[in-house]
Amino acid sequence: xxxxxxxxxxxxxxxxxxxxxxxxxxxxxxxxxxxxxxxxxxxxxxxxxxxxxxxxxxxxxxxxxxxxxxxxxxxxxxxxxxxxxxxxxxxxxxxxxxxxxxxxxxxxxxxxxxxxxxxxxxxxxxxxxxx
Length: 131
What we know:
Blueprint: H1 6-19, H2 29-38, H3 46-76, H4 96-105
């Protein structure tokens, strides 16, 4: 069954692709072209390069937003051992666990070395450690 609005969809797509010529994405064209080239994709159409840049920017924005939500949930969760041990400074500190959870929701499995700090106070001298 044909959609009666397919002509309108094509016009909207054409207009969107044309607007990409006037748009400067956050991710530079050269960087996108470099990684597209490394994967074996070469296309002289700058609109397609910018479309990939916009899609990548959206993906990274979603990951950052989801990581922030995981971080906020972690900070808001009460400490089970002793509620008086909650830090007075409620700054949000993104951990690898927050990022890993967000990436996992988007189908990316992240494995990190055991020596990465998984807490805001890891690796700090005992006198400066927040407890």
